[in-house]
Predict the 3D structure of the following.
Amino acid sequence: MALGTLDRSLPPFFNQGPSVLSKLVFFGALSVFLMVADVRFHLTQPIRAALSTALLPVQWLALKPADALRYSRDYVSGLSQAQSNSIEASKKLALQSLRAGQVEQLTQENNRLRKLLGLREQLAIPVMAAEVLYDVADLYTRKVILDKGQVQGVELGSPVLDESGVLGQVTRVHPLVSEVTLLIDSELSIPVLNVRTGARSVAYGDPGAGSSGLELRFMGGNSDVQPGDLLTTSGVDGVYPPGLPVAKVRHIEGRSESAFLKIDCQPLALVTGTRHVIVVKPVVSQIPLRPALEAPPARGKKGAAS
């Protein structure tokens, strides 16, 4: 039998109920009716509410993995952001601390420079501003190096001052730098004047005071010296101009083995840590030279023709 002549219809045993087309039309019409009824009369609203309530735990459980993933991602990103903010805040705090220290240092330096300018205006002698480069690396001396030398006009023996008083004296001059021996060095001495009494004496660097003081030597036991007396340069040495602040008397001690007092003095200049100074020309270099004496007129020889 040819394939085209086969009967494709269901056997009478299975052919029961309405046809497929009838079912399609019926359920289609029912669907349209239910949709219209739901829109107009909200017939399915209770059913939806009941289903929504019943499915809520299922939805909650279904959303938990996504929420956990989102929370983990937010935690990691928030933690990294917090760490970066903490690092940035630490950097800003360190920078602000550095700037605060610089501001404090610049303020102190500005005040010292103002005092130096005021001292420079008070001195009626040529002065030169200089800057301390570094301390000399020697355990047995107290010296610093300035950034001015012979090229800038620094002379050997020039007094060096800071904003508070005498700091030392130039003891070595190079073309571009110069060496200053501080007044607390044991090899340096400076003639001083007691402002209260007018008595002259000589102050020496005192190595016994931890390289930070001066000592008035050869002062008798009956000398009129008191703690707090101001000592200034006397000007008798031809190096330091008179009236420059040098030190204050700090401690006086009598010694039974000697007729002289032990007088400890505190320098007024900042002998440790000073940066800006002024170099003063020695007084002896400012004194005009003595004019040469004129030779007396030669007398004519006796018996010469008139």
About this structure: Residues 301-306 have pLDDT under 50 and may be disordered. The chain has two domains: 21-93, 127-286.
